[in-house]
Amino acid sequence: MNAHVTYDNLPQAVMSLHEKLDVIGSRIEKLSRKQIFGTENDPPLDVDEAAKLLKVTKAGIYSKVSRNAIPFYKIGGKLYFSRSELLDEIKSARHPTQEKQKTDEPPAMLQQLFLDKSSPASHQ
After folding, report:
1. Residue 111 CA from chain centroid, whole number
2. Is 58 in contact with 20 (CB distance < 8 Å)?
């Protein structure tokens, strides 16, 4: 672009500025994604990739985002997801196995016995 802008070359100057702004915007978006995700081992996922990972529809992803049920990033009006954060979210919702439940909880009979002995009515 010429340093000297005249009335005659104004449309070309404005178009040149728009092109440069588009380039700058895309570079900022790339830098933002790098800063957020920080690693090449966890590249950002788009909505389609997140839906595929979670085995839900795109509408399901949008629903989860609107309820803040999954972690997401919004950059330049686009949604991005971290694979590791989505997998961590799945792991955090893990229910204990039956074996774990059996070892952590006393049997129902023992619970009832304990409750009966500790109730004030049983001390009278």
Report:
1. 40
2. no
Q: Are 92 and 78 in contact (CB under 8 A)?
A: no
Which pLDDT belongs to residue 122?
A: 47
Distance, in Å, from the CA atom of 7 to the CA atom of 21, rounded to the nearest integer, reads: 21
Spans of the chain, pLDDT less than 50: 1-2, 122
Q: Is residue 32 part of a domain?
A: yes
- H or E segment at 37? helix 10-37
Residue 114, both tokens:
């304990």
* Residue 113 maps to a domain: no
The parent domain of residue 77 ranges over: 10-94
Among 70, 90, 91, residue whose Cα is nearest residue 81: 70
Domain count, the chain: 1
Q: Are 80 and 44 in contact (CB under 8 A)?
A: yes
For helices 58-66 and 47-54, what crossing angle results, to 10°?
100
| Residue 111 placed within a domain | no
